[in-house]
Design a protein that fits this description.
Elements lengths: L7 E2 L18 E7 L2 E4 L6 H9 L7 E7 L12 H14 L7 E5 L12 H12 L7 E7 L2 E5 L9 E6 L5 E3 H9 L7 E7 L1
Parallel strand pairs: 4-5, 4-6, 6-10
Antiparallel strand pairs: 1-3, 2-3, 2-10, 7-8, 8-9
Length: about 200
C-alpha cells in the first residue's frame, strides 16, 4: 500500500470527492488511489515515482487500464497531441508487462468503431468496467486527454468552490462528482489506482 510519506493529501479518507485539476497552466492532474485514501501527487511526485507505480509495483493483482483520447470537441479548437500521446502511453504499458487485452482505448479517430468512440456513454461505461470486480492488490490505470473546464460550484459540495470536469467527443460535460461516483467510490480498500488527466 502506498504510504503518504512525501505526498500531499488532498482529500479526506474515506474520500468525498475527486477533481481533475490544473497545474501551472499545464493542465495535468496525477493522483494515486491507495486503498480508500486519495493523494494528490501532482505537485510533489516526480515522474520517476509515477513511472515506478506503473512498472515496479507489479504485485499479484490484476492490471487494467483505460486510455481516453479526444482531439475534437464540438465548438472547441482541435487538440494536436491526444491521439499520439495515448498511443505512447499504451506502448509504455505494453513494454512494461501490461497485457494488451487489459488495456482499453477510447479514441475519437474516424477508424474507431462507434462503441470505441469516447462519447459520454462510452466513457462512463468503460469507467464502470475498469473498476468492476476490483479487489485489494489490483492495479488500475486511467489516462484521459481532452478539453476540460473549471467553473464555480453552485451546490456547495466542493472544498475549493469549483467544479471541474472533462468533455466527451460528443460535447457532453462529465463533472468531477460523476467521475468520483463511477470510478472511485466503488474501489475496495487496498486497490491501487493511478490517474492522469490532461486538459
Amino acid at each position: 500500500m502506498l504510504r503518504p510519506h512525501s505526498l500531499v493529501r488532498r482529500f479526506s479518507s474515506p474520500p468525498r470527492r475527486f477533481g481533475p485539476g490544473r497545474i501551472l497552466g499545464l493542465g495535468i492532474a496525477v493522483a494515486a488511489f491507495a486503498g480508500v485514501g486519495i493523494y494528490n501527487l501532482s505537485s510533489c511526485e516526480s515522474l520517476q515515482d509515477t513511472v515506478w507505480r506503473l512498472t515496479g509495483s507489479r504485485g499479484t493483482g490484476k492490471h487494467k487500464a483505460l486510455i481516453v483520447a479526444i482531439a475534437k470537441v464540438p465548438g472547441l479548437e482541435t487538440l494536436d497531441a491526444p491521439h499520439s500521446d495515448a498511443e505512447k502511453v499504451s506502448r509504455f504499458l505494453l513494454k512494461h508487462g501490461w497485457d494488451e487485452a487489459c488495456i482499453k482505448k477510447l479514441v475519437d479517430h474516424e477508424q474507431c468503431p462507434l462503441d470505441m468512440q469516447p462519447t459520454e456513454v462510452n466513457i462512463l461505461k468503460s469507467l464502470q468496467t475498469l473498476v468492476e470486480n476490483a479487489r485489494a492488490g489490483d492495479h488500475l490505470f486511467l489516462y484521459v486527454a481532452t478539453h476540460g473546464f473549471q467553473r464555480p460550484c453552485t451546490t456547495g459540495d466542493e472544498e475549493d468552490s469549483k467544479d471541474e470536469g472533462i468533455y466527451s467527443c460528443d460535447g457532453s460535460e462529465i463533472i468531477d462528482n460523476i467521475l468520483f461516483d463511477v470510478a472511485i467510490k466503488p474501489l475496495p480498500e487496498g486497490c491501487n489506482m493511478t490517474v492522469i488527466i490532461l486538459f
